[in-house]
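Before relying on records like the one below, remember that each one covers exactly one chain. Contacts with other chains, cofactors or solvent are not represented anywhere in the record.
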Amino acid sequence: MILNHLKALLLDNYLIKIASLAFAVILWFYVNSKGGVEMEMTVPLELKNVPPALVVVGDMIDDVNVRVKGRERILQGITAHSFSAVLDLTGAREGDNVYFLDPSVIAVSSNIQIIRINPRRVVIRTEALLKKVVQVSARVDGKPATGFRVDRVEVTPAWVTVEGARSVVDPLTQLVTDPIDVTGERKTVIRETKLNLLGKDLQVDEKEPIQVKVHFVRQN
């Protein structure tokens, strides 16, 4: 009896039930295919695979403007930090390297479409990477105690190895420390200080701090 009742429920109006199911499936596909919205955002531009003998120099854009398209509920969950534009510098040569940005530089999920990238073209300037040993000179400021003068200055290390773009490193003959103030001093002063790189993009092999020892002598 119960079995017959269940069978009747399933078979009665089965065409209506099939039609309802088909309509629900079509509606689901329709809803999910619609709602494609576009969104614009600024994402960081990253460089990878810079050849080891080169260094990137000069002014370079830090980010690009990207327009994406996808379902609204998906785009609501992404931000400018969700992805980045990655430029592969494999094969770059010294000088100006021109790259055209296309959707392949941005890794996104398959349900997000890259519509536009601005700028489309970027120029990356590179220079040869140069390493050089230069002398360290201490900057000593201030006037010692009355009747005394600076006799000699010792710096440890006296030489350091610097690395950077050829145009920056090649002219260097020395690096100067941050100032050591000896105002009113008469006994040997030992201080730790840092190298003043004057805003230059340099890497120094030797570890800081730099030790400076200032000796005084009585004036005749």
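The chain has two domains: 35-119, 129-218.
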